[in-house]
Amino acid sequence: MTKLLFGTAGIPIAAKGTDTASGIKAVKELGLDAMELEFVQSVNISRENAPKIKAVAGEENVVLTCHAPYYINLNAVEDAKLEASKKRLVKAAQVAEMCGGVSVAFHPGYYLGKSKEKAYETVKKELKAVVAKLKNSGCKITVRPETTGKRSQFGDLHEILRLCQEIEQVMPCIDYAHMHARESNNNSHGEFCDILAAVEKALGKEALKEMHIQIAGVNYSDKGELNHLTLKDSDLQYKEMVASWKEFNIAGIVISESPNIEGDALMLKGIYEG
Ligand SMILES: [Zn+2]
Q1: Cα 274 to averaged position of ligand 1 atoms, centre (Å)
Q2: 191 backbone dihedrals φ, ψ, rounded to 5°
């Protein structure tokens, strides 16, 4: 991509209807560029309806991405849970691509008491299997494991970047709220620059032109993320963050997950362009 696009996690509050097409139209009317399909509870668009969504997004020139169901753990111990997790991710990816979506973000799983290295090996193996399945079905969507917000969750920045290095078709989803909440750090200009430098070091300069970012204000405890806040109600140093994006001249998509989704997306876009 050549520039940074801004969008909402799901249908904007201002949308006239509660359906995806109304959401896409509202994104355009608001002056935003992208929308994330929220498959977080389930994949709520049918394969039959997906081409209609793709057509509306094309008409409105809105880029779509997707958030896969929360109920995914690629480090699950029980076979049934693991298989169901992979199925959910595959389905979300396929339907998102049928909607014209360019990427699918997901939370990779939980450590469940395993060592970080052991969990890494399992998540890598299972994610590889998911990508192979997608490839076999002709699905080329970018699969994006997220940096996660709780210490019990697999997915610190290093783990995510390593998966991207070792598996094709996999790129990071940098969730700043999660990264801040996870260790109560990652909230200064220097740290924001370190994150982007780490992406560049692991995946090359091109990766900075294909960023996928999620952002919200966040309330957290010593275990990590509790709930989302608006940016202004939070301690997140978002102006410093935007400054780091400009300094590294990144491109890609920024998705607001704040309670006032479009308000914060517009505010960030304003700061970025201002
Ligand atoms: Zn997420």
Answers
A1: 28
A2: -70, -40
pLDDT digits (tens, 9 = 90+) for 43-85: 999 999 999 999 999 999 999 999 999 999 999 999 999 999 9
Residue 225, helix vs strand vs coil: strand
Distance 101 CA to ligand 1 centre (A): 16
Q: Facing residues of 164 across strands?
A: none
Note the pLDDT tens digit of each residue in 13-44: 999 999 999 999 999 999 999 999 999 999 99
Other Cβ atoms within 10 Å of 191 Cβ, number: 16
151-164: average pLDDT: 97
Write out the two tokens for 218.
């966040």
Q: How far is the CA of 145 from the centre of ligand 1 (A)?
A: 9
> 210 and 240 in contact (C-beta within 8 Å)?
no
User: Domain-by-domain residue ranges, the chain?
Assistant: 4-273
CA–centroid distance, residue 38 to ligand 1 (Å): 10
Whether the pTM exceeds 0.90: the reply is yes
Q: How far is the centre of ligand 1, averaged over its atoms, from the C-alpha of 34 (Å)?
A: 16
Report the separation in Å between the CA atom of 70 and the middle of ligand 1, taken as the mean of its atom positions.
8
Taking the centre of ligand 1 as the mean of its atom positions, its distance from the CA of residue 173, in whole angstroms, is 9
Neighbours of ion ligand 1 (CB under 5 A): 146
Region 4-273: CATH code = 3.20.20.150
Average pLDDT over residues 121-131: 98
The residue ranges of DSSP E strands in 39-175, in sequence order, are 63-67, 103-106, 109-110, 142-145, 153-154, 174-175
